[in-house]
C-alpha cells in the first residue's frame, strides 16, 4: 500500500537516490562523493524553489515526490534552510571537473527554460510544477497521477487557475499530454556531440477536478 504525505527531513537521502537513479547521474560521474553532492544539489535546488511537496511512500520508503510552487505562497525566507543546504553542495561541486560540468548543465537548462517561458504566448501563470519523479517499480500504477493531483488540489485551494512545467525527451513527457496539459513551447538542444534532446514547456489552464 502506498501512503501520500508531506515531505519530511528523513526522506531526503532516499529522494536524492531516487532522482539520481531516474536521471542516471552516475553515468556522468565516476566519483561516489561527487555523485552525492550532485544528488544533493539537484534535490535541494528543487526544494528551495517550492512552496508545496507530497511524497509517495511504500513500506516506509519514498517511491515518488512532487514539488511545486504557487507564486503568491512562495516566500524565500521559508526556504532558506534548503538554500543553506545547497551552498556547501555547490562549493564542493566546484572543486571537481565533473561537479563543474553538472553546474554548467544546470545553468544551461535554466537559461533555456527562461527563453521558453519568455517565448510562451501566455506567461501570467500562478505557479510551476518544479519536480515530479516516481520509482520505476511503481510507474504505471497511478502514483504519478495521484502526486500530480495533490498539487492541482493545492493550487485550486489557493485560487490558482494555471501553472506550467518543463520536461524533455529523457522523461515520460507523454504523461502530461494524457493529463490534459498543453505543450506551448518546444526547443531542441544538443546535449552531447551528435545527441539531441527535445525540451518542452507545458501549461495547465482551467485546473480540472482533482479527484483521481
What does this structure look like?
- The structure is a single chain.
- With 212 residues, this protein is an alpha+beta fold.
- The protein has helices at 12-23, 32-48, 80-93, 97-119, 143-157, 174-178, and strands spanning 2-5, 52-58, 61-70, 127-134, 162-168, 182-192, 195-205.
- The strands form two sheets. The chain has a four-stranded antiparallel sheet, with helices on both faces.
- A hairpin with a 2-residue loop joins strand 6 and strand 7 (195-205).
- Helix 1 (12-23) packs across helix 2 and helix 2 (32-48) packs antiparallel against helix 3 (80-93).
- The two termini are 16 Å apart.
- The model has no long low-confidence stretch (mean pLDDT 92).
- The unreliable regions are none
What is the approximate shape?
A: globular
In N-to-C order, the SSE pattern is EHHEEHHEHEHEE
Largest beta-sheet characterization: 4 strands, antiparallel
Head-to-tail CA distance between termini: 16 Å
As a whole number of angstroms, the C-alpha radius of gyration is 17 Å
What class, by secondary structure content? alpha+beta
Strand order of the largest sheet: 1-2-3-4
Return the average pLDDT rounded to an integer. Answer: 92
Number of helices: 6
Tally of extended strands?
Answer: 7
Helix content: 40-55%
Strand content: 25-35%
Structure, briefly:
The protein is of the alpha+beta class and 212 residues long. The chain contains 6 helices and 7 strands, in the order βααββααβαβαββ.
Amino acid at each position: 500500500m502506498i501512503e501520500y504525505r508531506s515531505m519530511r527531513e528523513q526522506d531526503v537521502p532516499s529522494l536524492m537516490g531516487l532522482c539520481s537513479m531516474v536521471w542516471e547521474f552516475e553515468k556522468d560521474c565516476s566519483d561516489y562523493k561527487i555523485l552525492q553532492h550532485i544528488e544533493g544539489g539537484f534535490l535541494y535546488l528543487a526544494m528551495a524553489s517550492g512552496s508545496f511537496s507530497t511524497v509517495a511512500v511504500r513500506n516506509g520508503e519514498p517511491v515518488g515526490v512532487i514539488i511545486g510552487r504557487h507564486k503568491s505562497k512562495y516566500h524565500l525566507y521559508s526556504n532558506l534552510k534548503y538554500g543553506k543546504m545547497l551552498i556547501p553542495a555547490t562549493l564542493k561541486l566546484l572543486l571537481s571537473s565533473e561537479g563543474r560540468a553538472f553546474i554548467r548543465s544546470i545553468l544551461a537548462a535554466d537559461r533555456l527554460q527562461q527563453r521558453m517561458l519568455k517565448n510562451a504566448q501566455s506567461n501570467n501563470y500562478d505557479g510551476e510544477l518544479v519536480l515530479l519523479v516516481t520509482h520505476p517499480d511503481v510507474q504505471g500504477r497511478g502514483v504519478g497521477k495521484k502526486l500530480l493531483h495533490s498539487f492541482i488540489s493545492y493550487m485550486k485551494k489557493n485560487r490558482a487557475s494555471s501553472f506550467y512545467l518543463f520536461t524533455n525527451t529523457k522523461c515520460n513527457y507523454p504523461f502530461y499530454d494524457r493529463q490534459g496539459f498543453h505543450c506551448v513551447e518546444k526547443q531542441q538542444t544538443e546535449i552531447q556531440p551528435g545527441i539531441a534532446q527535445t525540451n518542452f514547456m507545458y501549461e495547465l489552464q482551467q485546473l480540472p477536478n482533482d479527484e483521481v
